[in-house]
Structure formats: C-alpha cells, structure tokens
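Predict structure. Chain length: 374.
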Amino acid sequence: MDQEKRPIVILATLLVATILLSGTYIVMMGGSDDDDSDIEFAQIKDAMNTTYKFKESPETIISTAPSITETLYAMGYGDKLIAVSDFTTYPQDAVDRMALDSSDPNHLPSMGSYFEPNTEFITDLSADIVFITKTSGSVNVYDSLKDMGQTVVMLHQEESIAEIYKNYWLILTVMNPPSIDMDVTSMMESINPLYDMRDSIEAVKDKMKTGTTDRQFLIHLGWESDVSQDVWAAGTGNFITAAAAMANMTKNTADTPGFAQINKELYIDPETNPEIIISVGWGWTGWDQSFDDWDTMMDTLRNDPVWNSTNAVKNDQVYVFTERAEEITSRATANAYADLVKLMAMIMQPQVFTGFTPDKVIGNNYSDMFDGHW
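Prediction complete.
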C-alpha cells in the first residue's frame, strides 16, 4: 500500500471501530492493507436512523443548542457557523460574534432558542447542514426542517459520556467525507477534547484512591428567595451526579431518576440529611447574573427550621455554582465534562487536596482552583 495512504487507513479503521462500539452506525466499503483502493464511508446514520452520504465537507453550519456550539468550536469548526441559539455564552468568540452589528460579515445571529427555533429563519440561511440534539421536543423540529428541504443531522441525546463520544464521532465523520483529502493531523486535533475528558476522568479516579469520605449530598436547582418551598433535586442519570460518583460520592439524598421535586421535610431524617449541598440553576443563582451573597443566603437557610436542621447548613457546607460553573453541569461537551469531574472532586473531597479550601461561590474563574492540584 502507498505509505502516504497508510495513516489514513489506520485512522479511518480506528474511527470506524470506535463509532461502532459507541453505537453510531457507519458502513465502510473498500480499502484494505493489501490494495490502494480508496476508503469510502458509504452511509452515515444519525440519531434518527436517517441515512446520509456527504460528498463534500459542509462549509456553513447552524447550531441549535449551546452545547452543540461549544462542541463545534472545540473540534475546530467554529468558523463554519453562520447561526447559533439563544443562551450561547461560550466560547467567547461566539459571544463576540453575536454582539457584532448585523451588517458585519462575521456577525453570528441567533436562530431562536433550542426549545423554540425559528425554522423559517434557519431555512432562509441555506446552511449546508443543521445540527440538532435529539429530545422529545426536537423531533418535530427535525421533521419540519427536513420537509422544508433543509439538510439536518440529529445528534444523540446528551445523557451520558457515551453520547458525548457518539456525537463527536458523528460530527467528525460528517465534516470529513471520503471525497476530500483527509488531513490526519487536523482530524486528530478535532478529537483532542475526548482525550482531555478521558485524562480528567483518570486523574480524578487516581486522586480518589485514598482519603475520600462518602458523605450524603444534595444537588439541587437553586433556591428561590422563599426557601420554605420544596426543591428540585438532581437524582440519578445526569452529568452532575455522575461526576459526584467519580469523586466517590454515592449517597445522593435524591434517589430518583433525572430531576425531581423533593419534599424538603425529607432532609430532617438522619438517613437523608445532607452533609453537603451544591446549589445550581436558577433562583438566587440566576441564568445571567453572578451570585455573591452567600452570607445572606445562609442566614435565610438558618432561619428555616428544616434547612437549619441539615448538617450541611450547620457546618457551612453549602456551595453555589453560578456563571460558567453552573453551565458546565449541564453542557454535554467533552471540555465541560472534563472540568466538571475535577471541580466536583475538589468540592466534595477537599481533604484530598493539600492546602485547599474550596470557595463557597464558584463562577467563571472556577478553573483557578485547579492550579497546583491537577
């Protein structure tokens, strides 16, 4: 075989093997170690099991969710975006482009929110491809865009690390069809975030081998100013509780699938009394504002008979995730999850990190805590 083609064949073979293992289906035809025939990906199936065959790399892309935008930027395709969704806050280049005047050729308009996309606006832009994430509500949007003649690829629902892998490989394959010359270096750089995520997970596992304590915890979606109300808590099967588990924290006081509203009286019971509370989401933390009033929040909790009975409030073990720290708890991207597993380990097992005391309010500068510890 031509020596220049060998690395392409090897990379393609590894790519296909990984995709097949992750559940993203790609049929590979032709090409072997014994001949010079070209490798051809005959078909690509997205999360809706729709078959595609791309002959050219898409030059213009529309992202319908902040997590998709982050992933495309991380993979090196941010310059191909011509529209994104509301609530796009990362990376900064996307934010800066959205702020440009609409007459500027680099302006990045919003196509609406993930829940209410403007399908007419999307089709008017005539993008080569639209990426959308599979949820119960997005299927109708997917079908509508296809009926309007738009090429749209459905990514896998973002519920686990496996889905992160599937989506990276699916995007990579769409962006690198067989008819173009494969740049092996660029392709490997595109999947670097996956390696970073893997390395972060391994680093956390290594750190957690000694000195950890499995304490009862509660992760909830932000108090409103009226703390007398019941709370929405993170149960099983989501990114933030999975990250907690990697920090050897398995005693989740909200032992329900997904997110559920929990009667706060539950936390008086010693069996479910949380020793640490992490507050993320809305309420006092807010989507678009920083949170710097931890003392006032704690005074309010101490004046509530239920919350004042929890070990977390008694011992000042209440932490607030806001700004970017809040976002990484729900952004299903490799970069975000790589940071989340490290952050959760440091908040939930601070004794493992020499000379470290976590901040009570964690926002845009959360990565500063990593210095000297990872």
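Summary: The chain has two domains: 6-190, 207-370.
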